[in-house]
Amino acid sequence: MLKAITVLEKAVSDPGRGLPEPIFYYISRTTPMINVDLLVTDPQRGILLAWRDDKHAGIGWHLPGGIIRYRETINQRIHAVALQEIGSPVSCAPGPIAVNQIFADPPKRDRAHFISLLYRCEISSNYRIDNGGRAPTVPGYLAWHNRCPDDLLTLQEIYRPHIDQAISGQ
Q: What is the pTM (predicted TM-score) of this model?
């Protein structure tokens, strides 16, 4: 077993920059992943959601989010997700508005157990979505929603009350 660990350590020069996919999936099969999800709100436009279509989460709308990397702070991951998925910085409350344990149902081999930290965030009123020519059914497509969509990803149904409350409270 120690030889296997040595091989893995040699394959990962800097775990803070991410892991090779096979190693990441092995780890996700053996331990929960901790991630942040961003509830991005705007008083006039509603909630910002992204389209997703993949074997791990399924097809539908989801909150922008990402898995915290080794030695990365929660704030660093929030900032990275905002830039990577939204293309703009956001400002967030100092702590999560919800902490959830998510299990993929039905159980999946990879990426099946998450500890998810939900942060309510705001974005500049000057922000404009840049979908780069993506069609609405292409992963990463962004859209504002003035109600929680029926086709929210199953894994993110736990956020429906937070989305509804954020929209109604704006």
A: 0.91
